[in-house]
Specification:
globular, 12 helices, 13 strands
Length: 334
């Protein structure tokens, strides 16, 4: 069973997802629906162009309108829909936005987390598993790489600090109240459906498809672990299926491709894949509040879960490019 979703595990389960309209949330909700789960999505903003809407994910789900910070709403949802599984993905995820607006970021990422987990605590008899999304950003800057799960969490900038705090809050609830909570720390997610065009991969793809030179905020040397959304879905589901088992509850797991790439390398691969080598990047070299090098060691996930990513970066990029072609160049793709 290692690394393979358990047959019929999700059939008829009642699954709550926060952040279901985001990149990972829409893909995860779709996978759970396809496996027979009843999915309940908490939605703050209705985004018509989001993948969750365009692919019919929300139309197949129970949709509750409200904010994650609203304890009464969250508690009602967990009780009323007899939720047994929780995926907490909801957060303010943009580094630049966090730097400009730390208060709203802390409200969303911290208050949202402790509000949901307190509601889980009140419904502990019915809830069997909770997976909380942290981030590799929670580790902060370290001289020794790659990050392991025992690397200290020392995020310094607003987004990084918010994820480090949410991570610690989740593990605190797990260990203090014996709740079946596990934490994921993933690399930089990408894939079809990411509408945050200020991120490197979707922004570069859109620029090149529009026959424009891509813009790089940094000097191009920053290194990240780029993690395909379909691999992330399998990671979340595999981990959730092990809960509340020993060795999983109260634990954090790194998930990534373990193939660190520089910004210039990623941009070069996108430009080459789209056949536009003349569109050389514009390098602004003005990035602030970002860590130069971040990438993960996923040995724990491999040994404990038998999990491995299934997509090489090139294959994942090919699928991703196809999604953006269909969305941004519908006439040409037709």
């Amino acid at each position: 069973m290692e690394g393979v979703a358990m047959k019929d595990f999700w059939q008829d389960r009642s699954v709550f997802i926060s952040g279901a309209t985001g990149l990972l949330g829409s893909w995860l909700a779709e996978a759970l629906l396809d496996q027979g789960a009843r999915v309940i999505c908490l939605v703050r903003d209705w985004v018509p162009e989001s993948r969750a809407v365009s692919n019919g994910v929300l139309q197949r789900s129970v949709v509750v309108r409200g904010e994650l910070e609203d304890y009464a709403v969250v508690l009602r949802v967990l009780n009323e829909y007899e939720v047994d599984s929780v995926f907490h993905l909801g957060a303010q995820t943009i580094v630049g936005t966090a730097s400009r607006s730390p208060l709203s970021t802390f409200e969303s990422n911290l208050r949202g987390t402790w509000t949901l987990l307190e509601a889980v605590r009140q419904c502990a008899r019915s809830i069997e598993r909770v997976v909380v999304a942290s981030s590799d950003k929670a580790y902060g800057e370290h001289s020794v790489l790659p990050y392991r799960e025992d690397t200290p969490l020392q995020g310094r900038f607003p987004y990084d600090a918010s994820k480090a705090c949410a991570d610690l809050i989740a593990l605190s609830f797990a260990h203090t109240y014996d709740l079946p909570i596990a934490v994921t720390r993933c690399g930089n997610l990408f894939g079809g459906g990411d509408l945050n065009y200020n991120r490197l991969i979707p922004g570069t793809i859109r620029s090149v498809l529009m026959n424009e030179r891509p813009v790089i905020r940094s000097d191009g040397s920053f290194v990240r672990d780029y993690f395909y959304v379909r691999d992330a879905v399998s990671a979340y589901m595999d981990l959730a299926e092990r809960l509340p088992g020993e060795g999983f509850s109260g634990e954090a797991f790194n998930f990534g491709n373990e193939t660190p790439l520089s910004v210039l390398d990623v941009v070069g691969r996108i430009v080459a894949a789209l056949g536009q080598p003349e569109l050389t990047p514009i390098i602004l070299n003005e990035a602030v509040h970002e860590i130069p090098q971040q990438y993960l060691d996923c040995t724990k996930a491999r040994t404990s879960l038998g999990w491995r990513p299934q997509y090489a970066f090139e294959d994942a990029l090919k699928e991703t490019l196809g999604w953006y072609r269909d969305v941004l160049l519908p006439r040409e793709s037709a």
